[in-house]
Amino acid sequence: MSEKFGVAVIGYGGMGGWHVRKLQSMEEIRLCGVYDIDPARNAAAVEAGVHAYSSLEELLGDPQVRSVTIAIPNDQHKDMAIRAMGAGKHVVCEKPVALSTDEVVEMIKAAKANNVIFTVHQNRRWDEDYLTIKRIYDEGRLGRVFKIESRVHGSRGIPSDWRNQKAYGGGMVLDWGIHLLDQLLMMVKEPVVSVYADLDNVTNQEVDDGFKAIIHFAPKVAGDPPLSCHVEVGTSNFINLPRWYMLGENGSAVVEGWDLKGKIVMVSDWEKRDAVPVVTAAGLTKTMAPRTEETIQQFPLPEVQSDVRDFYRNLIEAAEGRAEQIVKHREILRSMKLMEAILLSGQSGEAVHWII
Fold first, then answer.
1. Tens digits of per-residue pLDDT, 24-51?
2. At the N or C end, where does the chain have fewer CB atoms within 10 A?
3. Is the separation of the CB atoms in 315 and 90 below 8 Å?
């Protein structure tokens, strides 16, 4: 490229600062600057050696800025994105992109009307724990997979900023659920046929501070049962359950956490089904006794490496017409509809049956 791709960041909080640091590390991008409505945050940017625009109008009027990254509270995403696209800028919006499917449709229409790229920063598509379990799934190492569990746990409650307020688009379905759902929808391509959810309000009554959702996907092969997926976010968990747990006809896989500890256990001998009974205080069980060692084999998790900056590299290629944007409009809409189904089920106490 003859010149660097100019990007500005709107919002210089936690995620805004993260974007600034990533953009500064990329040779192909020129960080033009940031703007925040809080003067103290603009001052912090200047202190860190980053140009701070005096106003949003100045940022949007800068011809060097080809794309803006929006990292502000969720309820402000739609209006800010539409305004930036109206100024002819490509837009990267933080997740969740909006508060409803209707808002997303408005944003997509604005992108098409202004002939610019509109996409969402689904950065956790590059998480290596996700890419590891996805490789196991894609390669069919476990045979037909019939259950996937995906969860994240914390123990400090919901954040005390705008994320615990409904008016700003708070709650864990929108905050962390969107990550887990986007990952799941990128891994399982079959249609969603039903959703049942239970919302938690342990430390906060205004919005959910955790949830559990059972999502059923249509089977890959007609006649097979649906694939059952358990998605869970908790903020009052002092003992964490595995980040990923996948069950297939021929074995199981577990990824314990962010550090990628885990294993794959496969059946090596289907003919030998006998087992040594387990004796408990109240009796014995053969049904729940483990397989004998000679009938199973253990494997390490596959190694997968990634670079989240590939998201921005794709943005440049898409802006120059050399590639399709990696987070597509149909994917954005699908995950938004699934979040809405989870919230509806959690509020009604009933399963939502549909196909997306």
1. 999 999 999 999 999 999 999 999 999 9
2. N
3. yes
Beta strands 283-285 and 278-280 are: antiparallel
Exposure b/e, 64-89, CB count within 10 A at least 16 = b? ebbbbbbbbbbbbbbebbbbbbebeb
Pick from 190, 260, 264, 266: nearest CA to 228: 190
Q: Is residue 346 helix, strand or coil?
A: helix
Contacts of 79 (CB under 8 A, 6+ apart): none
Neighbours of 21 (CB within 10 A): 12
Scan for tokens 């990007």, then name that residue. Answer: 7
349 within 8 A of 196, measured Cβ to Cβ? no
**Cα angle for residues 298, 301, 230 (degrees, 5° grid):** 100
* Interval 147-165: pLDDT, tens: 999 999 999 999 888 889 9
State both tokens at 248.
Answer: 């297939």
Task: Select from 118, 248, 231, 247 the least CA-distant residue to 181.
Answer: 231
Q: Which two tokens stand for residue 222?
A: 């007609």
